[in-house]
Design brief:
Strand order of the largest sheet: 3-2-5-6-8
Number of helices: 2
Number of domains: 1
Number of strands: 8
Structural class: alpha+beta
CATH topology: Immunoglobulin-like
Strand content: 35-45%
Radius of gyration: 22 Å
Order of helices and strands: HEEEEEEEEH
Mean pLDDT: 79
Largest sheet: 5 strands, antiparallel
Length: 151
């Protein structure tokens, strides 16, 4: 005697149960991530005369992926809204690319940030890295991810 109704073949029933369990295992997430803040550089009130400052919101975890990017205004303020990626670990990073030091492209990495408005991100030597190519950047981000997982 069968426990399940006979109009579902056993193989189809197993497949259906598997797909249903996957559907319920998907984490619930917000539709958008939003952050607004200010980039602060010591001894520099205005970014006029400097190349634009690029701000990226990064979804962290096992690997890093870009959620969105924007350019900071001359006074350092920025606002960024992007569709939230699937993020099992709920880790968010902020990457700030600038050329304040003799025109050399540098990255300031702010790890494990919260998505609050009005935050100030200070550009200093503790978060600064020199970048020469996009390949170096990708290797750098992957290395940071591996180091964060070891902690």
């Amino acid at each position: 005697m069968r426990f399940f109704p006979s109009f579902f073949p056993p193989k189809m029933m197993r497949t259906g149960l598997f797909l249903a369990s996957l559907l319920f295992a998907v984490p619930i997430h917000a539709t958008n991530w939003h952050i607004a803040g200010k980039i602060e550089v010591p001894m520099l009130d205005d970014f006029s005369g400097y190349p634009k400052v690029l701000v990226q919101l990064i979804s962290g975890g096992v690997w890093n992926s870009e959620c969105g990017e924007t350019l900071a205004e001359a006074d350092g303020k920025f606002s960024l809204t992007c569709p939230s990626p699937w993020n099992w670990f709920s880790v968010k990073h902020l990457a700030v690319y600038h050329r304040f030091d003799d025109g050399v492209c540098k990255l300031n990495w702010f790890a494990d940030i919260s998505l609050d408005d009005g935050q100030t991100f200070k550009i200093d030597d503790s978060t600064k890295y020199r970048l020469t190519t996009k390949i170096a950047l990708r290797i750098f981000i992957e290395t940071l991810t591996i180091l964060n997982l070891k902690k």
